[in-house]
Amino acid sequence: MTYQNPKSIDTMADLRSQIDQLDHDLIRLLALRQQHVDRAAELKPAVGLPARIEDRVNAVIDNVRGIAAREGFDEQTAADMWRLMIDNMIAREERAMSKGDTA
């Protein structure tokens, strides 16, 4: 979908409609990200990796901060959101890895 510039939207109904579509697209992408994390939970045990790899967590947060800065999104908000997501995804990985299957 092509999104309109928010400045070109004249009504709250249209603005809300676009926000709802953005939410849908964000969740779709996050679901795909979760599938990748689920695959990581399958691959990590075979190579002796734990669910949480602190260097990787820090690299992801640094990357997200950079993307946020380039895209005009608040860096701290992005980092906070990603830390919450990462913590939840790692917990998901840990559950899957302890069961020997995917989350």
Task: Describe what you observe in this structure.
The chain is mainly α. It has helices spanning 12-43, 54-71, 75-99. The protein has three helices and no strands. The longest helix has 32 residues, at 12-43. The two termini are 31 Å apart.
Total helical elements: 3
- What percentage of amino acids are in beta strands? under 5%
Low-confidence stretches: none
Strand count, sense and closure of the main sheet? none
Q: Please state the CA-atom Rg, rounded to the nearest Å.
A: 17 Å
Q: How would you classify the helix and strand content by structural class?
A: mainly alpha
C-alpha end-to-end distance: 31 Å
List keywords for this structure.
mainly alpha; 103 residues; single chain; 3 helices
List the helices and strands and how they pair.
Layout: H1 12-43, H2 54-71, H3 75-99
Summary, kept brief:
This protein is mainly alpha-helical. Helix content is 73%, strand content 0%.
